[in-house]
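dumping the sequnces here before i forget
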Amino acid sequence: MNFPILSSLILLPTIGALFLFFTKNKEGNDLTFKYVALFTSVVNFLISIYLWISFDQSTSSFQFIEERKWIEGFINYKVGVDGISILFIILTTFITPLCIISVNNSVKNRVRDFLIAILIMESFMIGVFCALDLVVFYLFFEAGLIPMFLIIGIWGGERRVYSAFKFFLYTLLGSVLMLVAIISIYWITGTTDVVQLYEIGIDVKYQNLLWLAFFSSFAVKTPMWPVHTWLPDAHVEAPTAGSVLLAAILLKMAGYGFIRFSLGLFPIASEVFTPLIYTLSIIAIIFTSLIALMQEDMKKLIAYSSVAHMGFVTLGIFTLQQQGIEGSIIQMISHGLVSAALFLTVGVVYDRMHSRLISTYGGLVSVIPKYSILFMLFALASLGLPGTSGFIGEFLILMGAFKDNFLVAVIASIGVILGAAYMLWLYKRVVFGKLINEDLKKILDLNRSEYFILSCLAAPILFFGFYPDPLINTIEVSVTDLINMHNTNIASK
Amino acid sequence: MENLNLVLPEIFISLSIMFLLVLGVFKKDSSKIIFNFSLFAILITTTITINETFSITRETLFNESVVIDRMSSLMKIITLVGGFLVLIISSSYLKTFKIYNIEYPILILSSILGMMVMISSNDLIVFYMGLELQSLALYVLATYNRDQLKSSEAGLKYFVLSALSSGLLLYGCSLIYGFSGSTNFDIISNQLNSDEYVLTFGIVFILVGLAFKISAVPFHMWAPDVYEGSPTTVTLFFTIVPKIAALTVFIRFLYVPFLNLIDQWQMIIVFLSIASMIFGAVAAIGQTNIKRLIAYSSISHIGYTLAGLATVSNEGIQSSIIYISIYVVMNLALFSCLLMLRRKDQYYEDIDDLSGLSKNHPLLSLCLLVILFSLAGIPPLAGFFAKFYVFKAVLEQSMYFLAIVGLLSTVVAAFYYLRIIKIIYFDKEKEKYDSDHSLWLKFSLASSTILILLYFIFPSQLIEVVSRINII
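..and the predicted 3d for all of it:
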């Protein structure tokens, strides 16, 4: 296998963006731009599907590895995938084309620049998930801030400036400590290559501090309580496509980081800090679910529900059980699909009514039935109804949690009920009830592109809900080996 | 017989200065010719420097009072290239203010000569001579737009404060001479030992004087006023070229004569570094004038270069040199943008004048975007790597406090860079600016921006050149 498939996955969107950049920006060219961007991202999706097909599920070692000298004697550009990261790559390449299609409806000005930002963002996100060198990882992780800052700031809502700044500075503040940790790891072990670091291991006396430094970055990005406050702001103000990218993929970088780096590199410290993560996750689940109940803004409600769902994810990861970690990964994938779908459904009515307030709506079921059905599906998937992908993830996480700590699992289960409460109440207030608002009578049902996007998202949600084997088979060996490695590390020290 | 080839660049540039002076006096309306000649002279000097000195590991001349080593030749080349670029993008600005005179290139050449002498100095007296030559030329340059009150004020302020710092420097030098009995760096290095406490005064005086020249906190007070008042092209010159020379001298002083006294000066440098990083970041937040803002940002950038020096390792010195080289490119790009904000013979330099620039000037704003994110140190732009190398060196010495304070202050600094980006991209647009810029200006902006943007593809080259420098 000599063809650099991962590098081409990373580079292709950037090349598409460059192409757009050098095309003349004339009025009426918008459609062409969209097709070019869509073409690029669909090709990327196909490549990633090919990657998944040719991926060997029976081994946990990294595949499709590429390694090039980058900074002499210091850092190598190294990428590769294993069972954990490949799903995130596919999620990224799957969501991006849908975002580009949705641009039709939500972004009116500077379409070309918007598409360029999204494509560049895609490059960076894929880079994050396949980087096998800490510095390369950091580079992609941080670089993503630039396009996201612009997406929120240029195309966002009223308080976009505040939100964009908050997003940028919060995440930057978290990550600089991670940079200190990465450089320290280099001086402690002499390498930043993740594969080598797995083998060498890091001295126990450094682990706690390094773990905390990584944690500071991932906690902000996840986001965990109490540093989650940037997320509702960013979500609310970002344009629909931006919210989708943010919720579906950006948040997963941190969950991925926890599994790949916190668990993999600092096993002892992970054990030490498990109570901390449990506490924060539980607070996130209960507290933000309660906050979500009280929201009047639909996007804000979904944003808080994201925090709660990511609370489940962090909880699952640090159960350090097979089910817990597998559940977390599936929950992340599922949340990627569901939250993207929910933001898009909110986007649909927002484009028509220009209001995100729940009180504006009510009784939508009688005017736009198609929309209401899809919305119902996504709401149910979000609260984890059996038969949707949301269920598999939450169930596995709770199973892992019960194995590890009974009390935590019980409290987390309450979170599931709260999740059902806020989602169903939202659905009731928006879709059912009397049609009071006169303007709503003229509202149009889904147009073709919206229908297409939402069905594209509904299909995998249902499919993996009934038949999660393809996901579980892909991650199983990698997760088992991760846990074995963890246990041997714990036992030996 | 000394090998005069080694100082051929200095000899050539002095001869050119004299020739140009004579030419300027005798020929009327010769400013254009003199501009072109001085550009040519810098080019030739650069070539000579590369040819004669680049491959030399270390040689000394004139009773060891002048040293040619890898650091001096590299720094001379950066100085010359910086001077060259400043000169080629100056002309249209100067013409607008009707100060396109023969003195400008000649003064720039003389200050470059002074810097080259400084860079090569291995002797207190040679060093001081070079320093004064460059300073005198810079005083005049600061007041170059003499019809404007602000420019004259800037020059006067610069003169008074800089003369004071030179005084401190000289006092320090005399103390050092008194203790060691020699003005030669190598001999001083052997003579000094940390038993004599009064010696610390000498070191402190010299460090204060040098900190003043590179405008490190708390000796930075002159910088914002002088940067704001001077003509923009001169400000550009101030922010890049003298800093290179001063940094070289800083390195030379710390690591040759004072090497045995690390305990005495390391804390001072750490303090200067931390203070500059924090103060530069915090004070820039409230600024409304771009040039003032750049002054504060350059203060914080100097903080990062000093962080590299504080490590007392070759790695640290190399990282400082890398930092300053990348900083030169970034500042050059930033000023090229600033010089493009022209509307009907008037230059604009308030941050609000950038408002909504992205609507009318998408390319210019994109360049600014890249430059500002790079200054803020966001990957994958060159500015990130500059900081990365510095912190790598700092952490190698386990100076965690310095590294964490430095990185946290980059977050603060990111705020004001983001503010400019916000104004460019998120705010309402204003009138269009002229777009008939000189080719050189466009060239310097384009090339420096591309360098910043694509540095991450070939990061090894710069390191390779710099890693040949081993001072300790």
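The beta strands of chain A are 63-71, 75-81.
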